[in-house]
Design a protein that fits this description.
This protein has 10 helices and 6 strands, in the order ββααααββαααααββα. By secondary structure, it is mainly alpha-helical. It has a domain of 55 residues. The strands form 3 sheets. The chain has a two-stranded antiparallel ribbon with strand order 1-2. It has a two-stranded antiparallel ribbon with strand order 3-4. A two-stranded antiparallel sheet has the order 5-6. It is a multi-pass membrane protein. GO terms for molecular function: phosphatidylglycerol-prolipoprotein diacylglyceryl transferase activity.
């Protein structure tokens, strides 16, 4: 675990955002090469990538705030910080790092000061992939129509570029310690250091007695999802793209494959993710996207041209 990847001119660079940006640059580069290969304007892909990045961050943050189970914490941070519990020990609570208020009766720490803009501080952590995907999709629809770029051709490009970028982003999650899995005895289980999100969760579940302890070994769900995303990108780019029967087929396949992979990984995850009817928010959205992928396949395959480029 390495939340801060490096420092430059005394400025810390968070691992998650460095890997997220790396994934974005790599995915955009793939898109530019693809556009040149099919004779389209690569500048449109660069503009598209930047817009999708910004809209994706906004969407991913909003879904986190409203669906990951922290909504009332953000509300109380603004209205009544005493209702927000931090799972810290007394010494840590009163240290300069947290500067909190110790609640001896409950044995928890509370924030000292109200913060009505905590919900907007995306750089402090708390982003969801599906929120980013939905936000980026909205930006893509607008820009592609504006630039008169063939929508479904661009969607097929996204079908291999997005999971490639996500493979980088999930490794950033690993370094940040978020998106961790359930405890395991498997030989590849990972233990996270003291005060990590995994340790905090296991203290809450009474699996550990202190935040100063290393976490019990957990499934490296970040690596599972990164590997699955890389596999989806490779399949879509090297096998399906040259054989597609209609524009939009690569995107539909990527959408469905990721939804299935994410649904399975979610079963092993143990970080706070919200949800309903026994399923996490991401699993519920994934089921909706499976339906969307099936509809895209049905409508696009029915209306396909004799040979998709």
């Amino acid at each position: 675990m390495r939340p801060e990847l490096f420092r430059l001119f005394d400025v810390g660079f968070p691992s998650y955002f460095v890997l997220l940006l790396s994934g974005f640059l790599f995915a955009t580069a793939l898109g530019v090469l693809w556009a040149r290969r099919i004779g389209m304007n690569p500048d449109a892909i660069v503009d598209l990538g930047l817009a999708m990045l910004l809209a994706g961050v906004v969407g991913s943050r909003l879904l986190h705030v409203f669906a990951d189970g922290y909504f009332w914490d953000y509300v109380h941070l603004c209205t009544d910080p005493a209702q927000v519990d931090w799972p810290l020990e007394r010494a840590e609570c009163l240290s300069s790092a947290y500067d909190g208020v110790w609640d001896a009766a409950k044995g928890v720490c509370h924030p000292k000061n109200a913060d009505c803009f905590a919900w907007a501080k995306f750089w402090a952590g708390g982003l969801t992939y599906y929120g980013g995907f939905l936000g980026a999709t909205a930006a893509a629809v607008f820009l592609l129509r504006r630039d008169k770029f063939p929508f479904w051709k661009a969607a097929d490009m996204a079908g291999f570029a997005i999971p490639m970028g996500l493979a980088f982003g999930r490794m950033g999650c690993l370094l940040a310690g978020c998106c961790f899995g359930a405890t395991t005895d498997l030989p590849w289980g990972l233990s996270f250091p003291p005060r990590s999100p995994a340790t905090e969760a296991q203290v809450k579940e009474h699996l550990l007695g202190s935040l100063r302890m290393w976490s019990l070994p957990v499934h490296p769900t970040q690596i599972y999802e990164s590997a699955a995303s890389l596999g989806i990108a490779a399949f879509c780019l090297f096998w399906l793209l040259p054989r597609k029967r209609y524009d939009g087929q690569v995107f539909a396949a990527s959408l469905a494959l990721y939804a299935v992979a994410r649904f399975l990984v979610e079963i092993l995850r143990r970080d706070a993710r919200g949800g309903a009817v026994g399923l996490s928010t991401s699993q519920l959205i994934g089921l909706g996207l499976l339906v969307a992928a099936a509809l895209i396949h049905r409508t696009r395959n029915r209306n396909r041209s004799p040979r998709a480029a």
